[in-house]
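JOB MANIFEST
job_type = single_chain_structure
chain_count = 1
residues = 306
[input]
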Amino acid sequence: MNTHTNTSQHHHSALIGMALALSAALFFSIKAIFVKLAYQHGVDAITLLTLRMAFALPVFVVVAIMEQGKAGLAKISPHQAMSIIGLGLVGYYLASMLDFVGLQYVSASIERLILFLFPTFTVLLSMLLLGRKISRIEIGALILSYIGIALSVQQEISLDGENSLFGVLLIFGSSMAYAVYLIGSGELIPRIGSRRFMALAMIVSCLAVLLQFFISRDMSLLIQPIEVYGYGLAIALFSTVLPAFMLAAAIHHIGASHSAIIGGIGPVATIILAVLILGESMTGIQVGGALLVVAGVLLLGLLRKP
């Protein structure tokens, strides 16, 4: 009886985890669509990013307060606090800034594909910085991914020229910054808790974006069409706050590797939505390249140790 109950609970937990991971991937995938739609109303990247962070900040402040009030949590040391600030600046401030600016020059489909490469950057940085050895199969997965992205990006650049190349480089930088954040967060999360770390890091990045706007932009830029406010709110809630917590919950139920594998639907979803909503088109070579990228990254996910 107990065995049957435990099995049933395990299956139920796995289904919940898969549903959460799938939902997180879909919500993350529509961010580029919202950004592109907002750009059609003439808003610039920094102003749109500022609206996103302004809408998201209160949520993360509430979460941080709730987590801080939990019993049994270790006190954050000065060294850990500095690490949180540094990772918040790299992982969400810098990565988001590069991403939003890059989306002014490249299609939503290409943006999502390049961002999806962050696990490959994580593997490479772990090898270079931490001395981690990688297997021949992992090397093959990396080669597969980069051949795929080369095919997709080459087509984009050949169609749109130097502007696309600039955008591609910015998105690559965004993905690399996020990989650095992931490596650094792996040391802190076990010590201070995932939700508390995420909330604090996001608060740092939100404040950094708001500070940059107030220093470099005129306040009148915050006066935007109602559609821009709507897209800013949608990016904050549906492509930042909700999927972040969904992914954390999914990892709790089914683990990081399985969550990452399900997340492979993200680039595919973005490509489909970009075609249907934005009218973007992809050549056969780009579609083939996209499939190679997804295959390579998912293979890395299967090979990754818990």
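[summary]
The mean pLDDT is 84.
The radius of gyration is 20 Å.
exit_status = 0
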